[in-house]
């Protein structure tokens, strides 16, 4: 009888201590210099592509399962890659201006994961709070993880962040119309 009571006490104690110490999250810091964020914006007469630099970032895992993440982008690093010379400098300057991302007063943008759902092997559907120009809105996108690499593609409606220059909702000249959505392709190295 004493052995049974002792066994029950030990089992209860060990079980309770295991429940009190769940598996801890592992945070993997993203190597900002080895990662890339590429953008593509569309207009009636074509498109433009470029990059912005990742300032910092991390992904959180529970075992091998993605459970969270947070990223900061250096908006002052806006760089157009499909133009050269004066055209490039003018577009870079315009994108940094108050007409677009107002990088003087909003030097960074931020993304914080709020929900992560597995959608297949190494794939996740992520919802996060994206902050651009001090305005935070939810976005949903897919993330794939392979070893120490992760990729994501996001489609962003810029008008939700008060970036309305040349938008169709304002009613500009047809050849100057800039589509409201732009794409981000993110390649992360951890």
Give a written overview of the molecule:
The chain has helices at 2-20, 85-96, and strands at 26-29, 36-43, 46-62, 65-80, 108-120, 123-132, 135-146, 149-157, 178-189. The chain is α+β, with helices and mostly antiparallel strands. It has one domain: Lipocalin. The model is unreliable at 4-21 (pLDDT under 50). It comes from Flagellimonas olearia. This is Lipid-binding protein. Residues 27-189 form the Lipid/polyisoprenoid-binding YceI-like domain.
Characteristics:
TTHA0802/YceI-like_sf, alpha+beta, Lipid/polyisoprenoid-bd_YceI, 190 residues, Lipocalin, 53% strand, Lipid-binding protein
Provide a short characterization of the protein structure.
16% of the residues lie in helices and 53% in strands. The protein has 190 residues and is of the alpha+beta class. It has one domain (25-189): Lipid/polyisoprenoid-binding, YceI-like (Lipocalin, Beta Barrel).
């Amino acid at each position: 009888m004493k052995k049974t009571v002792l066994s029950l006490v030990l089992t209860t104690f060990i079980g309770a201590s295991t429940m009190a110490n769940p598996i801890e999250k592992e945070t993997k810091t993203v190597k900002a210099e080895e990662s890339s964020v590429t953008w593509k914006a569309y207009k009636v007469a074509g498109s433009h592509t470029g990059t912005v630099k990742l300032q910092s970032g991390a992904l959180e895992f529970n075992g091998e399962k993605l459970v969270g993440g947070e990223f900061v982008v250096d908006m002052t690093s806006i760089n157009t890659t499909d133009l050269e010379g004066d055209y490039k400098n003018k577009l870079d300057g315009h994108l940094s201006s108050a007409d677009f991302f107002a990088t003087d007063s909003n030097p960074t943008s931020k993304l914080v994961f709020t929900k992560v759902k597995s959608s297949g092997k190494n794939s996740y559907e992520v919802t996060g709070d994206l902050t651009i120009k001090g305005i935070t809105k939810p976005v949903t996108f897919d993330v794939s993880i392979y070893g120490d690499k992760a990729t994501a593609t996001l489609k962003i409606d810029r008008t939700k962040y008060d970036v309305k220059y040349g938008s169709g909702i304002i009613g500009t000249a047809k050849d100057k119309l800039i589509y409201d959505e732009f794409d981000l392709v993110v390649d992360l190295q951890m």
